[in-house]
Amino acid sequence: MSDTLTYPRTIVAKAHRMTVRPMVAEDAEDVVAFARSIPAHDLLFLARDIRNPKVVAAWIEQVERGMMRSLVAHDVAGKVAGCTALVRDELSWSPHVAEVRIVVDPGLRGSGFGRALTQECMAQALDLPVTKIVARLTPDQAGALKVFEDMGFLPEALLRDHVRDAEGDTHDIAIMALNLDRQGGLKRIYGLG
Q1: How confident is the model at residue 166 (pLDDT cuts 50, 70, 90)?
Q2: Is the four-CA dihedral 18, 68, 121, 166 of positive or negative sign?
Q3: How far apart are the C-alpha atoms of 115 and 26, rounded to whole Å?
Q4: Highest mean pLDDT among 4-8, 21-25, 129-133
Q5: What angle do CA 58, 68, 74 make, to 5 degrees?
Q6: 3 has a pLDDT exceeding 70
Q7: What count of other Cβ atoms lies within 10 Å of the Cβ of residue 82?
Q8: Under 8 Å between Cβ of 49 and 58
């Protein structure tokens, strides 16, 4: 991790103050409780159901093995308010691609917290040898779509009826991507870095 990414860090969004730090094994129970407090529809974009303790245990194991980076955010009462995952498989055909996954407490949406947490995750992604970052979300997540669009992500695919919820209903998944090489070139053209 770069020298500029030191944790824990504080995020302030409107009246909310959150402490963000890397996820550790001791967070497992709290992350499961957090996931269970969120409507299931809001988790459909994830590859696995993080309401299941076995899924979260496997997630943390991947973090501990260095195969994934994850952050967890706590509010002032110590309750989980959001979490991230940055997934990259350096042994795949796409070692230059990372996927960002962000889950935020629905009560904090619209406060800027989700955007700030996404920026934290993106800062970690920029510390990796990647040239493309992808995000998956359900098309009805207007706030999340706006955050990713504002960061330069573009729609790449719509996977129709791609996930099935507990009731058996299918839902679409949108895939957005940010090509860092192209984004960097545009920034240089406009004198932004």
Answers
A1: confident
A2: negative
A3: 26
A4: 21-25
A5: 80
A6: no
A7: 25
A8: no
